Structures are given as C-alpha cells and as structure tokens.
Structure prediction request, 429 residues.
Amino acid sequence: MTAIESFFGIDTALWHRLAIALGIGLIVGLERGWKTRDQHGGQRLAGLRTFAVTALCGGVLAAISLPDRFAVLAAGTLVVGALVVGGYLITVREQRDFGMTTELAMLTTFGLGAVAVLGAPFEATAAAIVMALLLGFKAEFHAAIEKLERQELLATLQLAAIAAVLLPLLPNRDLGPWGAVNPRVVGMLVLLIAGLSYVGYFAVRTLGARLGLTLTALFGGLSSSTAVTVAYARRARTETAHRVLLGAGILLAAATMVPRLVVELSAVNRSLLAALAPTFAALMLVPLVAVLYVVVSRRHGTASGGLELSNPLQLRAALGFGALLIVLFVATEGLRRWLGDTGTYAVAAIAAVLDVDAVTLAMAEDAARGTLDPLTAQRAIALAALVNTGAKGVLAAAFGGVPMLRSASAVLGAALLAGAVTAIVTLGA
Prediction:
C-alpha cells in the first residue's frame, strides 16, 4: 500500500475487484435490459440495475467470506437462488413463460461477481462477455439450429468429443516401436485436421450454392482438394458449357493445399516454413495465375455449387486419419533407421498420394521432437506436396478426359515442374 492508502485504510485491490464485479453485472444486464426493454419495469424479472446489484452482491459476499468464512457466501447464494426461483414461479403463473434463461443468467452473474473478488477477475469478466454474447445471439443461434442437418449436428458433436473427451484421455508419452508414437500428439494432429475440415465443410454449406462453383472450390479445398478435383472432373464430362470454369475450380482447390499446409506447419513446427516457402509459392501461384486468366479473359456464368463433400468429421474418418498418422510415424522411424533418409522420402512419396496433410504433420512433428533432421523433414514435405499435386493432375485427366488433360492437368503439371525446380534449388532435393 501507498502512504495515502495506509492512512485512510483503503484496500485498492479489493475496490478494484468490486468494480469489476459491478462491471460484470452491467455487461450482462445491458443485454438482458435491452431484450426486455418493451416490458414495464414491474413486469420483468430483472434488468440492467438488478443484474448490476446481483453481481455486486456476489462480490461483497465473497469479500466478507475471505479468508475462511465461506459459509457467508454459501448462505448468500441460497438466498439469491430462492429469490430467483420465486421470481420464476411468478413469471410462469402470470405470463405462462416457461423459459429460464434470465434466471440462470442472474445466478451465473452472482457467481461471476463472487469469482472476480475471490481472485479471478479476468476470467470472470471474460465469462461474462461470453455469456452476454450467447444471450444476445439468440435469434442467430435458433436460425442456425433450424438449418442444421443431422449430419452436420453429428459432425459438431464428434469434433467436440475429440477435443474435450478423447484428447485429454490420451497418454502424453512416447509409445510403440522405437518410441515413435505419442498418442497425445496424434490426437492433437487429428483435431487440427478435423478443425480445418470442419471450417471448410460449413463454408461450402453456407456460401457454395449462392456464390457458385468458384467459391465452392475455394472453400472445398480447405476440406479436401482431392475430393474437389474428382467431383469437378466428373462434372466436366457432362457439363460441357462449364468445362473451363470447372477446370479453374480444380486449380483453385489445388492452390488451397498450400495455405492449409502452412497453417498445419505453423501449429506444429514453424521453423520448417522458411525453406519450404519457395516451393509452396510455386505450387500455389501457378494455379492461381491460370485461374486469374480464366476470370479476366473469359466471361462464364457462375453455376450454383452442387458439390457434395463427404462429412470429414465422421468418427471412422477421424480414427482412420489417426491410424494413418501412427503408421507414418512408425514407418518413418523404422525406414529411417534401416535406409536412412531414403526411407523417409519413400514413405512421404507413397503416403502423399492419399493424404499430404498426414505426411506433413508426421514429418514436422518428428523434426520438432528431434527424431528427424529438419532438412530431411523439409525435403520429405516438399516431395509429398509435389506428389500430391501430380496425383491431382492425373485424377483430373482420368475423370475429366481430354478437356481436363489440356486445362487443369496441364497447369498442375506446370506447377509440379516449377515446384520441383524450386525444391532442388532451395533444399538440394
């Protein structure tokens, strides 16, 4: 304390926390007061002032309870709870309103006011803001739920299960042959890929049909650029009027592979990015230049999306990705011990035909743990990206025929060549 604080007996830390408690009540009360602004003061359970007083009451009782008189706070909680229950019963009887959101918000506000004084003011304030957002976005949440399909609901629940249930249960230690597998790391990488796919899926769901094939390809590439390649190439055989646009969509989806890999590497092993930047730039810019040429020089209508990507968050798919990662970890370590760097490159090239993300994450994690030389990891990742780009070019020609061979496959071949040259120059591959 300063001399002035000591003279007047002021505990500024306590006053600061009480002010935060009051602010918490004002934050939540502002939203609740606006929600019931058309009701007369005596017809609503609580508004701005009531919520502010409730939070301040929680803070004051918490201050009185310190350091070891928590029975006071418990008794106060019971009293406030009884008042809230009484108000709810009156509201139900007089207005036939069975919702209890405001009542629960009031109890939570009381608790957050107490938490702020007990020593977690930042956490309490953050929780109050989040609660106010949840209350304020009621109409948007209800509208989103009404549009939600069962498959999408299951995808959301599965992502939550991976993040909140499966991941904390996984042991955080090296297991398996040569200690090559850390289950917690595998779980985190599965969650990372699932999250990226989740964003891409709902981007397609929300924006694809309205903004056309191009935007669908862009966001679809976040989920699976290979799936976009196959779907668009098949459509090109029958939708001859949109062949150029479909080819551009394949290129745009292929280009999104690069930012996806950048995000993954940034999360796992950022140090690998610098040397990979030229190769990544070539693999992204060549397709984008071709897409830009199509947009500028040709005037094609934007047909509605209609692209149906499989749900990337099905539990079977998530577990399959985790199993692939485990195999890659073990195979990489085993072949590295047996064949040296050559074994690592062989694993990267073969696996990248199916999934470049798994290869990238496996190599980056091995390099981060010190079990793989960083240069070897960079070369393997570059090789995987090149192989995956070439595989998409082959798929486009196989499913789309000669038109796709002359357009999308040719551009992807040019990107593959440019990427290979930059990889040789920068990585000595």
User: Anything to note?
Assistant: Residues 251 and 401 are 16 Å apart (CA to CA).
